[in-house]
Design a protein that fits this description.
The protein is mainly β and 134 residues long. Helices cover 6% and strands 40% of the residues. The strands form two sheets. A five-stranded antiparallel β-sheet has the order 6-5-4-7-8. It has a three-stranded antiparallel β-sheet with strand order 2-1-3. 17% of the residues are buried.
């Protein structure tokens, strides 16, 4: 069986994954307009500034949308199916996609409070979410 994919770490996203390795969830922060967002942009999507920073966030949020994946798209994910793929609205205003783990699909609903945890995949720690209070 092929292993699960591992993100390619480069100079652009390295601070995000370095934070994950320390148990920190980090988002980009624009010092010009205070916009927060994930690392997908080299510039601020709000004011177009190129002066970007990073901010550690709480890792607390709520489920905005989710789906239960019953049939794994790749053999590497068969051992975890069914699994939940979700959009999480972080308390700091950033929306991110991740998995909700360590619960049953029937436990997940829109508005469910969750918190970040980090799971090892290969040499990288990835942010995933568990039910708050777990």
């Amino acid at each position: 069986m092929n292993p699960k994919p591992i993100p390619e770490i480069n100079a652009f996203n390295r601070p995000f994954f370095e934070g994950c390795a320390k148990g920190e969830l980090r988002v980009r922060l624009c010092p010009r307009c205070s916009a927060r967002f994930l690392f997908f942009y080299e510039w601020c999507p709000n004011c177009w500034s190129l002066e970007m920073g990073w901010e550690k966030v709480t890792g607390l949020g709520k489920v905005s949308h989710y789906c239960v994946v019953h049939q794994a798209p790749y053999a590497a994910f068969e051992d975890v199916a069914p699994y939940m793929l979700a959009l999480i609205d972080l308390d700091e205003g950033v929306r991110m996609m991740s998995n909700i783990i360590d619960c049953e699909p029937d436990d997940v609903y829109i508005g469910l409070p969750v918190k970040v945890t980090f799971k090892k995949r290969g040499t990288v720690l990835l942010p995933m979410f568990v039910l708050r209070g777990s």
